[in-house]
Design goal:
The complex is a heterodimer. By secondary structure, chain A is of the alpha/beta class. Chain A has eleven helices and 14 strands. Chain A is about 35% helix and about 15% strand. Classes of the chains: A alpha/beta, B alpha/beta.
Chain lengths: ~400, ~240
């Protein structure tokens, strides 16, 4: 079954995924200096754009997320990653707002990435794909938003790498961002986070099937390396108390340890499962490129080392949200953002939510997250003069 | 991160009886908060430090159309404010005010919180730096009931503004109205206006600098500004 799904991922071209595809003919100037294009952006929308185009919310997905925020995933069939947040009557209310979620540049769900075919060679880009940055992802999204005829987004939101994109939006296109809600994120990727990403990349590249990145042309897939990368990363998305609560030292379908290297413990079995299901829906080279983009993210560096400068004169309304048990993007990083925003007298709210679910809390049912976001958006809608339809 | 010192605990009335519901259509808020609200011009940029559950801030945003921000130490207070659409951050008057630029606000409000700060003098200096005006209310430790409590019972005074026993009070820097006026003098903060309030939060027509006010007022509300701003600016080395 797994092999069957894998072959689906391999053989599908950009246009095959359900949802919208927009081909950008005009090349995009990337941070690495390359003029890249034409390229495709795959995106989903929910709800309806109002007549004055003032009710659009851009949802930015995380490292391994995609545009299917509130649809069943086309490969796994699982519910959308933010299905609890996006929908009729939900916090991102599709009866009221027009929600856009696009697969990031470098992604593997329809937007051009390293698995896409390079028109010049007829082969997948693989490692000849240019190294992209979070700013490049946002530049591509800006093209999409322009194309949809939206001058100003009511809100840009997202967690983790999605939050980085939110910050980049607020810094690069402040006039297009009425409200910004970066969740569980930071203005730069920490040394520890770069280190974890490097472990993941090395795991992928150590897999002989990776074949220097040319695995698609050779009909292989580095599933073992990618699975290990996912397993290591997945630990960082949780917390020690959450792991203990979920698994403790419980054994998996056995009463005693086997004195071998089977998955004796439930936590091992869980991680193996996370790894093996991930490879069905994600491309190994995309993983390399997107983790690299996160590593390169440093908003202050773009502004002569001053984070407040990134937001100077901003009129956007910010709501920064962190989680107590998130050790990947700890509250201290959010607090630095708050201080930078205070330094330019920006309109900022900051909420730290108590939970033991770790970094992944933004994907889970955290009532306080929902209440905060609902209240913040209601206040912003009032200021924007958005009336209920 | 969160120290024992809690503005919310110090500020029990703003989170207790005067909940969000108190700020209804009538704009009915506690009397001393209403007094502060009356001092604030419509449309002003306001920072309310120790804003509790946002009773004053919500009132100002709704009825005075201010550009209002809040800072609150207790996470539950912050979350409830943000959930109501107010711009509030989790923060601490001692640590988190420094980041604001000079003159960032028209008015900075510190209501019933000064006595719970670690460095009240430095906080006062910061308040008048980041705000063109600062409105500060605090319990008067020279209030006659407090004096009598100590005199007759020989125990640390407990009152409705200072409800905690000595071993768990967040109010670590209590002062009298006279002390407050003296420290403002010392650091060159200008007292633009001062009002003393009785036990029911009604203003007294007493001179706040006099000993009668120091005896009869349960709390003081002061409007401050940085009188030496120009002097400081010229004191900077030219090159």
């Amino acid at each position: 079954m797994s092999a069957l799904i894998s072959s689906r991922l391999r053989s599908r071209s950009d246009q095959d995924w359900p949802g919208h595809h927009l081909v950008m003919r005009e090349p995009l100037r990337l941070d690495c200096g390359i003029e890249f294009g034409p390229f495709t952006i795959a995106y989903q929308t929910y709800g309806r754009l109002n007549s004055d185009r003032s009710n659009a919310i851009l949802v930015c997905h995380a490292l391994t997320g995609d545009q299917f925020a509130a649809d069943p995933h086309p490969i796994t069939g699982k519910p959308g990653w933010w299905e609890t947040m996006v929908g009729p009557g939900l916090v991102l209310d599709t009866d009221r707002f027009f929600i856009v979620c696009a697969n990031v540049l470098g992604g593997c769900m329809g937007t051009t990435g390293p698995q896409a075919v390079n028109p010049e060679t007829g082969e997948p880009w693989a490692l000849s794909f240019p190294v992209i940055t979070v700013r490049d992802m946002v530049r591509a999204q800006k093209r999409l938003i322009d194309n949809l005829g939206i001058d100003s987004l009511f809100c840009v939101t997202g967690g983790s790498m999605g939050g980085m994109q939110v910050l980049q939006w607020a810094a690069s296109y402040p006039e297009s961002v009425f409200a910004a809600v970066p969740i569980a994120t930071a203005a730069r990727h920490s040394a520890q986070n770069i280190a974890f990403h490097e472990v993941g990349r090395q795991a992928i590249m150590a897999d002989p099937d990776w074949s220097g990145g040319r695995y698609l042309s050779l009909g292989r897939r580095p599933v073992r390396g990618l699975a290990v990368a996912r397993m290591a990363a997945h630990i960082t998305y949780l917390s020690e108390p959450a792991l203990h609560r979920k698994f403790g030292r419980n054994l998996q379908d056995r009463h005693t340890v086997t004195y071998g290297f089977d998955a004796d413990f439930q936590v091992e079995s869980y991680l193996r499962h996370q790894g093996s299901t991930f490879v069905d829906r994600f491309d190994a080279n995309s993983y390399l490129y997107i983790t690299r983009a996160m590593d390169y993210f440093d908003l202050a560096a773009e502004h002569a080392g001053s984070l407040p400068n990134a937001f100077k004169g901003t009129q956007s309304r910010f709501c920064i949200i962190s989680f107590t048990s998130d050790w990947l993007f700890p509250t201290s990083e959010s607090r630095e953002l708050v201080q930078a925003l205070n330094a330019v007298a920006a309109n900022v709210s900051f909420v730290e939510i108590e939970t033991d679910s770790g970094h992944d809390s933004f994907l889970l049912h955290e009532p306080e997250l929902f209440e905060t976001l609902r209240g913040f958006l209601a206040g912003c809608a009032e200021h924007r003069g958005l009336t209920r339809s | 991160m969160i120290r024992g010192l809690s503005t919310t605990a110090a500020n029990f009335e703003r989170t207790g009886a005067h909940s969000a519901a108190a700020d209804g259509a009538t704009g009915d808020i506690r009397r001393d908060l209403r007094l502060i609200a009356e001092m604030i011009e419509p449309g002003a940029r306001v920072l309310d430090i120790g804003c509790g559950d946002g009773a004053l801030l919500g009132h100002l945003v709704r009825h005075k159309n201010v550009d209002g921000r809040g800072m609150e130490l207790s996470q539950s207070g912050v979350n409830s404010c943000v959930g109501r659409g107010l711009s509030v951050i989790q923060g601490d008057a001692d640590r988190d005010l420094e980041a604001y630029p000079t003159g960032a606000f028209d008015v900075v409000v510190l209501s019933q919180t000064l006595q719970a700060t670690r460095e009240p003098r430095r906080v006062l200096e910061t308040l008048v730096r980041i705000g063109r005006r600062a409105i500060i209310s605090f319990p008067n430790f020279g209030f006659w009931r407090i004096r009598l409590h100590l005199l007759f019972f020989g125990r640390m005074p407990v009152s409705h503004l200072l409800p905690h026993p000595w071993y768990e009070t967040p109010n670590i820097h209590l002062c009298t109205i006279r002390d407050f006026v003296a420290v403002c003098d010392e650091i060159g903060i200008r007292v633009e206006r001062s009002i003393t309030l009785d036990r029911h939060g009604r203003p007294y027509s007493l001179d706040p600098h006099g000993s009668l006010a120091n005896l009869l007022a349960e709390q003081g509300v002061f409007v401050l500004s940085e009188s030496r701003r120009e002097a400081k600016a010229t004191a900077q080395p030219a090159g």
